User: Fold these one by one.
Assistant:
Number 1:
Amino acid sequence: MSVRPARRKLGLWMATALVVGNMIGSGVFLLPASLAEYGPISLVAWGFTAAGAILLALVFARLSRAYPRTGGPYAYARRAFGDFVGFQTAWGYWIAVWAGNAAIAVAFVGYTAHFWDALAENKVLAAGVGLAAVWAATAVNAYGVRQGGVVQVVTTVIKLVPLLLIAVGGLFFIKSANFGEFNASGDSAFGAVTGAAALTLWAFIGLESATVPAEDVKDPEKTVPRATVAGTAVTALIYILGTVAVLGLVPAAALATSTAPFADAADAAFGGWAADLVAAGAAFSAFGALNGWILLQGQIPFAAARDGLFPRTFARTGRGGAPIVGLVVSSVLVSGLMLLNYNASLVDQFTFIILLATLTTVIPYAYAAAAELVLLATDRPSFSRGRLTRSAVVALLAFGYSVWAIGGAGQEVVFKGTLLIFAGMPVYAWLKYRDQHDHAQAVEAAQVDESEPPAQAA
């Protein structure tokens, strides 16, 4: 009898790379241009969002230490609130992941167009390149979770080079005159910070990444919390320094219309060769984020299916332990979303999709923070007794931040995102009907077995 080899798991570096790589994806390379209308006050928004992200990272770190189980936000919400909220969390998070992957694939095409001009003009070609990237990353992750982790480490290192070039080296070339008016939005300081923070939140989506494949991580009780907090802190520092450098290198008027603000900043500081380097780094960054998020798009339905809250077929895995069905079905949905919108401009596609993806991710964040509050009260032995009060305060602040972020997404996005969440309710009803039907059949079969007389010995 052959024995299947043990699954090779993610270590601390791979888990941290998953966190950093999933957060530093495509958004950060475009955000300085979007934030230009607010002026340097956007740095306050970055700080505020970074603080909220750290609070959420601490929540996920404690929950992952107490419950090192695959599923991340879904697993915690289900444990605290039961099947229905658990399903809502898994459904919303799954939508966010595969919809976000469509946005990242679009951004990958946009960055690649810096070197391949035809991509900016030929929408069919652009769609083909985007789909090729999606299915290449799907193939890597279908081969095994660790293989996806190796790709994540490599792409994370590559993407950090151009970002650090600007975030650190660019600081020596900034000019104070480029910063412009501190609050250029024309709104109140609170309104400007709120509006800018709603944009910066997309750049932090993914801080929970190491908690999702927890059972595929070595020593998850220690590795996942360390990777989550360290990855979030490092990413926040890079974001803030990078934004300071771009604001100081590119004049405010030019920044507001820039389609590649980091590349423009590199050109201003070091010359044209640096702009090409940053553009290449952005393309690698987008592909690395796509790879990491595709890893997660199979893990969420896998965890839910294993608990009976998704169709059972999503629990199937390949030889390497990867959830093949979840990966393939999710990538089919990514492909469909890209094809439905391929005729729109790249910017329009990216903007529409990330707003919905951000909302449907922050809702599970809110559930996770509330879940910790519930579990601190109902399952105290799983947490450090000496830190219960501090943990409760952090979880409460993280929940408040999540609710504020949901409101800051805007009425239209909240409306459409809520409809997507509600669309999952018939699926939940069908799953419960299936379970009840299976249970009734099992009871009936057991009764038949009991009613039959035992066979007589010959």
Number 2:
Amino acid sequence: MRRIALTAVLLLCPAVAHAWGGTGHAVIDRAAIQAIPDSGPVFLRRYVDYISASAGLPDSWRGDSEGFSKIEEDPNHGWFREQFTFLKPIPRSRYEFILALYKHYETIRDSDPATAARTNVRWTGTLPYAAMEAYERLIVCMRAIRAAQARGGDASVPEQHCAFQAIRLGHYIGDGSQPLHNSANSDGWLGPNPNGYTRDRSIHGRFESRFVDGMGLTAADIVPKIGAPAHLHGDMFDAVLAFLDQSGDRMETVYKLEKRDGFSNTADKDVRALVYERTAAGAAMLRDMLCRAWAESAAPPARVTPSPLDFSNPRFNPETGSSPA
């Protein structure tokens, strides 16, 4: 009953249309949960309707009227790689990333004011940090589930916490699977344009919402394309960055296909193939992160010594007051 009531409240909230639209995000979340193996966090299957119905929720936190929420949330939905090619490696801290952007802005604001105007957190994005934050909160929630199960108690509350974090993670990973969320050309081509790509901002919505809705995308279309679980080992932040790079590499393909007929033909096999491939990639990455979080939750929290807040920690950064992850 509590899940039903919460879903009803969310459905009454005003919707904001961004990224993949309602259909794409809901399909990615549902397909990811359907693809969880029996060794994974199968409890999420009980919450699949709530999660998929709420897949667009993070977009509703970006309204102009909610200024505090908007300024924090807006960057979480993009990763405009062209804007920070100067920054290698990518910092393992949201705040170190933001500080690096500002330092570069100060360096170029007089010599290259046009580039400087977009060298800030809003026009670069913070998507991988938002995804990792939700991922690690899932690990914490899942530890609480295991603890409740071990003592024979009720795990429904931590399960609901996990379902909410799955909504957040699913949205950011879903955004990341859409090529236009990984480029400064997110809403029309910028800068030199020798190939004559559209500069119309509506390309974003015409691709991810109008075309996807028109083709009638469903979870059944992409579940067979997800494949076996991966990302079982290795650094998850690096895996998220690689996932975003793979998606961003398809950005120009979106523009090439748009030149054909502006995405007006929902029977276009090439556009449909791109939608299938990208949404399946998003669902696979989400499934993998959910399963990896569940596996990580089986171990107690790692002891970090010295603490990330300890000035004696060799990685302590006085500019952020902490050491990076």
Number 3:
Amino acid sequence: MSATHLVPRQPTVTPAAYDAATLAVLAAMEEAAEQHLDAIRPHNTKRGYANDWALWEEFHDWLGERTGHRIASTNVTKGTLVGFVVWLDTIKIAAPNSIDRRITGVTVTARNEHGVEVPKAATVAARQALKPLKNDPERQARGRGKAAAVTPEQLRQMNAAVADGLTGLRDRALWLMAFAIAGRSAEVAALRADTIVHVSQGLEVHVPAVKGRPPRDVVVHYGKNPDTCPVRAWLTWHAATGIATGPAFLPITVHGRLGDRTLSPEAVREIIARNAERAGLSVRLTGHSMRAGFITTSRRAGKREEKIRAQSGHADNSPAFWGYIREADKWTDAASEDIGL
């Protein structure tokens, strides 16, 4: 006979329902516990959770653009959380460990800030979706380097593979404008048609303030190659749509008609990445690739640092800007050149 059979079986007892006074004490203890945990949580962790929730909001904006209905961000379900994992992997090109951390940030913020208890089945499913990504060496290597800087040759490849119709006209105008103004994705999304002025030399473009960065006014010259000329691409898109005011670039429905919503920064990044993939480029381009590409290309063409910086809106002492300049200059008057070897 096993030891368990020596223990008398206890009768099943159903716990009594809590009275109102007990429930009030327990609720107060729960609230006090959350306040205590929040107080001892490191500042960097809090900031990380805030960033995670901002990405969660961006995911819902992206989803709303595609479904025509934006659901509340507090709908943290198995479907939305797994969709978030796929979006972070395929659209944001996030590393698996970063995605894992984002799942935690969203669930903690949903509970602590919005009073939403995320079902365990949702987090289990999200991490099941994440598991094969963690076994992929290429995905694990993500986030360990700078965005690839696009080249004029790659822009021509993208032009050759661009889609037909209104979508193709918009996409080409968008990525060439992003390149020509050295624009951040948020800046490209915020451009307005009425502040892009056609003049004899090209375009005068007002780049609006985004995320606390100051606005700037830049000029975009006609290009020598019609396939990569941002001025011609913009004028063609503008003529096809007749947009006079409001957002410079709009979504296009599955039926090929203009939408009435402003493109999100994520949509700008997706358009660039999708067209680079369509063209079969050997590197994956992101929204930042256009900005980096302009700086390196302009520098290799001999343009002065202050002119390039005025176009890109970088601060005088920006490490990122000077990193691009060093990359562009590394073969100019190289130390190993013509030294008698």
